[in-house]
Fold DUF4133 domain-containing protein.
Amino acid sequence: MTNSVYQINKGINQSIEFKGLKAQYIWYLGGGVIVLMILFAAIYIAGLPSIVCVGIIGVSGALWVLKIYKMSQKYGEHGMMKALAKRQVPKAIKFQSRKIFKMQK
């Protein structure tokens, strides 16, 4: 077997980028691979034929990789966290009374 050497592009104050994935998306992809390995073991132990197991995991893995690359491209390094935080902010604040606007003496 030959050893592969991969370049990790990281400049000063730049996030890690590996094969087009930025920052936390590398971890998401790795976590997805681990989950798919556990899923493969579970459905293989459940008694499904190995070719069916490989097909299910192959399709699921391809969809996961495409989804992660799409999120990395769309949101970038911090964009997904900002988008999730923006959804938490209420669009309007409603009050039933004007009591909070009264002047304190």
